[in-house]
Amino acid sequence: MSEHTHRHNKEGPCHFSLMSLSAVKRLLFVAVPLLALWALVVWAGGWLG
């Protein structure tokens, strides 16, 4: 383990927060992976023909 602890400056560009995004971007951030997972399940199940 490194003796140096990694700390982010909350005001800096490195800080990421879902609350800083717009509502649409937050929705897409959650919906896109779920849709991708659903599409993978459908494809793997062979339900598309």
UniProtKB/TrEMBL annotation:
Residue ranges crossing the lipid bilayer per the database entry: 27-48
UniProt keywords, alphabetically: Membrane, Transmembrane, Transmembrane helix
Protein known as: Uncharacterized protein
